[in-house]
Amino acid sequence: MRPRFWEMPLAALNRDEWEALCDGCGKCCLNKLEDEETGEVALTRVACRLLDCASARCSSYADRHDHVPECILLTPTSIPRHLYWLPATCAYRLRHLGHPLPDWHPLLTGDPESPHRAGAGVRGLAIPETEVPEDEWEDHIIEEPIP
Ligand code: SF4
Q: Would residue 147 count as lying in a domain?
């Protein structure tokens, strides 16, 4: 990976750099509720069934689409249509908008734990969707954790 690659345009990143840009917060793996009339999106703490809620990592990242076909594939060209729901601190969102990474991002700290220490991750917050019926998700609406 190239020095300070995260400052380059997203479209210039190679595959390893692209993957390394993810801060591991896990917020994109929380289910959302979208109001069909207003388009308003509410975040819940109910996580995708593949999310390991203890680590906040996908338990089957490489073949996640075999298990969850609707999982979003973020690319430089797909980001614009997902901006309305992407977490405010998502590194892809920030770089797409030309913003710097937050100082707790692992690429700046060298520590993959730093987002969780800063309070940007879903550890201790997420609960598995296998434990909550979908008609009860609205009881678990939360504000996005933002340090
Ligand atoms: S919200 Fe963005 S930075 Fe956080 S885990 Fe998802 S893709 Fe990675």
A: no
What is the total count of domains within the chain? 1
Whether ligand 1 lies within 6 angstroms of the CB of 23 is answered as yes
| Alpha-carbon torsion angle 103, 109, 114, 118, nearest 10 | -20
Per residue in 39-94, pLDDT (tens digit) is 999 999 999 999 999 999 999 999 999 999 999 999 999 999 999 999 999 999 99
In a 3-state reduction of DSSP, which class is residue 17?
helix
Between the CA of 9 and the centroid of ligand 1 the distance, in Å, is 17
> Of 75, 90, 95, which is best to mutate to test ligand 1, by the most ligand atoms within 8 angstroms of its C-beta?
90
Domain span at 89 = 5-142
The answer, as to whether pTM is greater than 0.90, is yes
